[in-house]
Amino acid sequence: MGQDITCLIINKKIDLGNEVVHFEVKDFTFIPFNMSCPRFEGIENYDLVSDYISHLESENNFENYPYHRDHDHWEVDIFKMVRDHHIESFIIEHSSEWADMPVDYCFMQVLDGKINKNALVYNESEFARNNFENIKEAKKNFGLNFNWLAMYDLFHSYPISDRAYTQLQAKK
After folding, report:
1. Helix (H) or strand (E) holding 111
2. Residue 85: what are its φ and ψ, rounded to 5°?
3. φ and ψ of 88, to 5 deg
4. N-terminal to C-terminal alpha carbon distance within the chain
5. Residue 123, pLDDT above cutoff 70
6. Would you say residue 74 has pLDDT above 60?
7. What percent of the chain has a predicted confidence (pLDDT) above 70?
């Protein structure tokens, strides 16, 4: 079975309690989500993540989507977490492959509340098609200088992440 993982990556440690599956690796907090490639529909029309979140809230009542670690997730779950925890700088990255062949890849970076449109990659959109080359630089500027996707014991898939998190919590 190939890798299939979506993560919200924050460049600091934050308190999420015990109910949210998350890992602290180096100086980052990784929050895996049980979802396929985020769509980020219309995000290229926004400069600030707060404006995009307001747009999402106008279409979806965020309160109808409480985080539940055992359910499937979708984009609203990620952006609700960003809003609720006042996260201003983050990366959302999704990677899936099958038999070592890439299937889906999505990437988004926000720094100090501003969406980095030069590194926005999602659903083979025409807008984002040429942005793949900017991802390495975006990660470098974020301080993410290691390949978290190679950490299969934590980030192979959401069920693997959930199991690893449960085991870590049991040791505490």
Report:
1. strand 101-111
2. -105, 10
3. -100, -25
4. 30
5. no
6. yes
7. 95
Say what the pTM is.
0.92
Distance CA 68, CA 4 (A): 19
Asked if 5 and 161 touch (Cβ cutoff 8 Å), the reply is yes
The percent of the chain in helix, strand and coil, each rounded to the nearest 5, is 40, 25, 40
- DSSP letter assigned to residue 47: S
Q: What is the DSSP letter of 36?
A: S
Question: Residue 66 is which amino acid?
Answer: P
Longest dimension (CA), the chain: 47
- DSSP, collapsed to helix, strand or coil, labels residue 110 as strand
Segment holding 32, helix H or strand E = strand 28-33
**Residue whose entry in the numeric block shows the structure tokens 């934050």:** 14
Q: Which residue in this structure is represented by tokens 């690893």?
A: 164
Q: Report the pLDDT averaged over residues 28-44.
A: 89
Q: What's CA 127's distance to the chain center, in Å?
A: 20
Distance between CA 32 and CA 73 in Å, rounded?
Answer: 10
Phi-psi region of 42 (alpha: psi -120 to 50; beta: other; left: phi over 0): left
Cα distance between residue 82 and residue 151, in whole Å = 24
From CA 79, how far away is CA 12, in angstroms rounded?
17
Residue 108 in this model has a pLDDT that exceeds 60? yes
